[in-house]
Amino acid sequence: MRLTIRDLSKTYPNGVRALRGVDLTIDAGMFGLLGPNGAGKSTLMRTIATLQEPDRGAIDLGGLDVLRNKPAVRERLGYLPQEFGLYPNLSAEHVLDHFAVLKGITDARERRAQLEFLFEQTNLGAARKLAVGGFSGGMKQRLGIAIALLGAPRLIIVDEPTAGLDPTERHRFLNLLSDIGHDVIVILGTHIVEDVAELCPKFAILAGGEIVYTGAPEAGVAELRGRLWRRVVAKAELPELAARLHVISTRLVTGRPVVHVHHFEAPGPGFEPVAPDLEDVYFYHITRATRLAARAA
Amino acid sequence: MSPFSTFAGIEIRYHLRRPVNYIFMVLMLLGGWLYTATPFAWAGPFGGAVDNDAPHKLNTIVMFMTLFGAIFTPAIAGTALLRDFEFRSHELLFTTRLRKFDFVLGRFLGACLFTALVTGCSALGLWLGAHMPWVDPARLGPGGALAYVWPVLVYVVPNAFVTCAVFIAVGVLTRSFLAVYVAGIVMFVGRQIGLSVMDGAFHAGPQIERIIALIDPFGLAASGLVTRHWTIDEQNTRLIAVVDALLWNRLLWLALGGLLLLVAYRWFRMEASPGVRRRARSIVDLPVVDPHRPPRPRPPVRPRSGPAATWAAFVAMTRLYFRDVTRARPFQAVVAVLLLFMLHAVDLNFQMMITLPVTHTMVLIVQEFGLFFSILLAVYAGQLIWRERDLHCDQLLDATPVASVAVIAAKIAALLLVQIVLLGLLLGCGVIFQALSGYMHFELPVYFGHLFGLDVPRHTLTILLAVALQLLVPHKGLGVALLVAYYVLFPLLKDIGLEHRLLRYADLPQILYSDMNGFGPNVWSFAVLWAYYFAFAMLLLAFGRLLLVRGTPGGLRARLRIARGRATGAWWRFVGLAAAAWLGLGAYAAHNFHVRNTYVTERGVEALQAVYERAYKQYEGLLQPQLAAVELRIDLSPETASARVRGTYRIVNTHEVAVPDVHLHLPEEVTIHALSFAGGATLVHEDPRIRHQIWQLAAPLAPGAETTLRFELGVERTGFAHRDRDTEIHANGALQSESQLLPWIGYDRDGEVADRDARRRLGLPERARMLAVDDPLAKGGLVVRHTHARIDFSTTVCTAPDQIAVAPGALVREWQQDGRRCFAYVVDNPILNSWVVQSARYEVARERHAGIDLEIYYHADHPYNIARMMTAMKRSLDYYQAQFTPYQARQLRILEFPRRHQDFAMAMPGTIPFSEGIGFILKFDPDDATTYDRPFWITAHEVAHQWWGHQVSARFVQGGTMVIESLSEYFAILVMEQEYGIEGVAPMLREKLEIYLRGRAQEREREVPLVRSEGQEYIRYAKGMIAFYGLADLVGKDRVNAALAEFLRARGFGPVPQPIADDVIAALRAVTPPQYQYFITDTFETITLYDNRICDAAVTEEQGRFRVRVTACARKVRADEHGRETPAPLADTIEVGVFTAPGPRQLRLGKPLALEKHVFTSKSADDPGAELVLEFVVDERPAVVAIDPYYKLIESRSNDNFFDL
């Protein structure tokens, strides 16, 4: 099973160009889709999830033209949107059972087995009789993934699932994702680099509607090895530094700004080399895209 | 600027930015505009001599429009405090330095002002409409801007305050938008039902009326109480004064609104707590799973697709949506309120109304909720269609493989189930009520037939349209508002000329259930038109499906592109099928309307009437031979709703000149198979549309000569017509009159357009409603109307073998012939040519009394009042024969006929056709002194017509109806009084007085004195009864009756000249002593009203006896034709009495302890009022003092006639 995206573009009526010629190939397994807010992640995922029409481009899922065979795609799809609500007065069990029927699990025995399995997987068994209106964010998110997992989907799309979860809930959720079979395509859209670092053998970075990087996390890290430098700076220095060098990130360490700079050799005195991590990879590509765009303009 | 007013300003600006609010404004503006700028103004309650901008009219319309405000105020006020929670900006807002006071009050004030701004647009619309260039300036009154501003101050602003307070309170307490909407529905519908209750509240007494006036939050009932007797002049000149009931109402509701606001303020928490209170508040943290647990094998699963899976999804969704609606508190609140209303409406209806709780009357009450259902379903359609989007789970649903069509279908099915459940509950209420009132004849088929055969299909169309609108206009509030606007404005479409059934969505034929005739003849056309609109709704839904939002398409262009992709082969096939069904059924219906029947609109009828008048009015005074004998053979086929009539007219030239031509006017619905004159005649002119024929006789008919007209006519019904027919030959209960079946000789003035505004529109000259007494056309009473000719009459009627057919006269023969049952009737004495033939499956009650056969032909299920009606016939015959003249026939019959849109009884020679809706199922409790025996009264009235109408008929000019109707009312009250005493007729007189006072308030042209009465029922019946009874009370019944008996003997059965009202008055004046002559002048010849009251009264106890000192005041005014009053001097005799306290079932008075007549004389020429101080000494403790306690005088305000000691 392979998902191929070709030249996908989308411009909203208000003029925002959400996707610009996205090309992407995703194989079975966890695939991280990283990008800052507004990069077009949700647009891309909604488009793959048959919920939005692109202006241009094609999506192919194992030989199936996604844009033309939406019903067939939906039969193979599990989708967890970024933000969602549920019928507040219904119990978790009723909600899950309802969606199971909607997903075509009409056999009562199969449905019961699915519910048993998913409630255990998501650790919601104790809450299954309770109205979902009273669920915490994490519980709701887990119920959402249970809905997405119903009926053995071949393509699972989860959009920012860990945003707003506390660390325990987040880990619980990531564990759950990692349990999904390896023959399934799982697209994890997120702006949290750690999510990808912990889970995804492959990932892509989306910025300004374009894929600016795609590959394996280790490969991304390896590319930057020996080219990253850090220095503690004074705040006043920052603009001058940013104009002169490719600053990929500025963060505070015990209250003082520390910059990470991409450079082939030491950019100057006071800079020391850093071992890159995935976050650096992410920032490198994001800032690079911005610089390129600025140069083009 | 304080933060408080800043918030109000922000609130108003927020609403000004919302496009939907402009739609509301335009709707309100249009609502007002229509009433002054278009023929609307002349339709309905206003028009005639009421100015186009009469203050009372402006007041009423602005007031009513605030009611519609209740539909959209929730959208404005309900969101004022909840919005931030929805936008999730509350945490941000509430953590600022904002004070709760500023926030709540500011938002409230803003919402309130904005609501007033929107509802106030109706006043602006009225003003604009009145100033349109095409509006006739002659129809505008002198009024100024204040007349437009006043109702805004009295209704718009306070009602905005009250509704906003209610909605904000409901919003704060429930934190649910739906609950706010539901509160809106409840207010709107509660008000509507209250309004219908108010009509009957009169019978429950003034206290109840005041209570209803107080509890109406919009002030409509209170205003009605203040203005309901306003004459045209008052309507044109007066601004409503905020006093009395209206003042209390306004104060009460402003106070309540303030209180609610206070509650909302106290309850409102500026905290971050989310939405609704939820059940699962305390979910314990779940145990953390061991991350090293062995992975469990995934259970095998094979999702299915295809029809079976779609069906399963449909069923699951239907169940879910049904539960979603019905389990929610707001819905349960609606149901509770609905059932409360139902019980309340039923209860009041039967307290005040007068019929037994037979099933179809229960159903009628359920159907009163029709508008409620439409609005409720519209709101819930909006709610359900956008349910997922509102819950933010639309993407979850949209990503499942379930077909969009199944989702929509499930939502429709859930709405259907909801309404079925609601109707079922109402049905249950009806049955329970029947059982509680001891009526155990439950007709479940009638309930089911109405609710599930008529109401469910009707509401289904509403649901489909509501859903289609939501899909096509993807904005919830707008979709709801459009549908509600459609249903509210629907009855008015006709007035703007949109009458065709095929162009008025869901305009289905009315089906009027009758116990005799079942659901009647319209069932088939109902089904056809329903299917027609169903197919249309399917088409709309199919287009809605194209635009259906699935996912986040963004933008109209994208949606249109998706829509193009959705127009698949299957879609086209569905559309093709629906379109074929729609067009096919439409063509079939049109074929029935236009080809098999004649298509006539109400406007079309008027246009034809105008043609008739223009072309033939010239013949109005033409001398025509007069009908002398009619011989008929009528073959009725109730089975096929057809009839065949063969007959002859013997016509005589009663004039002194020869008559060369005969003018015939034939009923529009009959087919002429043959028509010929003995001795030959040529048809020289025929107007096929109007069916006016002019025959030139071969030889002019010499004075005194006669000829014979032979004809064979058919009444053949094919298919169904556009207009509901009220006069079908029903399967059980056929009723055909001479005017429906047979040719009319001469010009018929009743065929002209009567309505003054319609005449103006059609360019016809102004016309008196009735010929003046001295009009040359009346020819001194020598030209006898076709229906007033005295004829010999013999009929043979053949009907279905299981039915009895009845015509006037004695039954001379009954036999079977060719499988038909035939009856031959011959009259003993000549009768007026005004008769009916009836046929039904009758039970017959027979008695012989004083040589007269009394017969009641009734429906087997209606035995309730037969004995009472029989008694009434006997008492009436005995009384009228003893006091006046002998009865002219040997039989007197009452015959039941199926219910119609208006229930009535009429008096034909020796026969009284009596609608099943009155008399037969009326209820009378002899112990209840607040009401009177209606079956008895109606019977006595109709029997009296055998004297007034049949022995003496009146000239067809002004005042003629006094001779016929007022005197019959007088006869009836005499018999009633003999049977029940003065206490038994006082409630009737009280009701008549109210009918008169309301009638003159609704008069649109001019009021006339009784002796010049025209068509107005409030004069000829209501005022007529009081006038004659009052006169007899003063002068003495013996004298009045003797004079009338003499009049009957002198003028009875005389063909020409027929008497007029003045002849009766002359006879009465002759027996009236001089001191009472004023009464005839006042009550009969002018419009005079008393305003009497007890100014003061006190009681002292003396040795076990009671001395009552009473100050009684009297006043009298003359009114002109529009109600302008001038004081009149008094030297009048008025009754004053002392009474015990009223018992539990008496309205105002107990038994009389003293009752005296006194002469009240004006104090002086300057002060025409009169005041008398009287003393009564009585043995029992008195409780009430009253002037004119039994309503024997025409009095403008009678509540103050009673004084509680």
TrEMBL record, chain A:
Keywords: ATP-binding, Nucleotide-binding, Transport. SMART domains: AAA. Coiled coil: none annotated. InterPro entries: AAA+_ATPase, ABC_transporter-like_ATP-bd, ABC_transporter-like_CS, P-loop_NTPase. The keyword DNA-binding does not apply. Residues 3-233 form the ABC transporter domain. GO terms for molecular function: ATP binding. It holds the Pfam family ABC_tran. Belongs to the ABC transporter superfamily. This is ABC transporter ATP-binding protein.
Automatic annotation (TrEMBL), chain B:
The keyword Heme does not apply. The chain crosses the membrane at residues 20-41, 61-82, 103-128, 148-170, 177-198, 251-268, 334-354, 360-381, 412-436, 523-549, 570-590. Residues 871-1050 form the Peptidase M1 membrane alanine aminopeptidase domain. GO terms for molecular function: aminopeptidase activity. This is M1 family aminopeptidase. Keywords: Aminopeptidase, Hydrolase, Membrane, Protease, Transmembrane, Transmembrane helix.
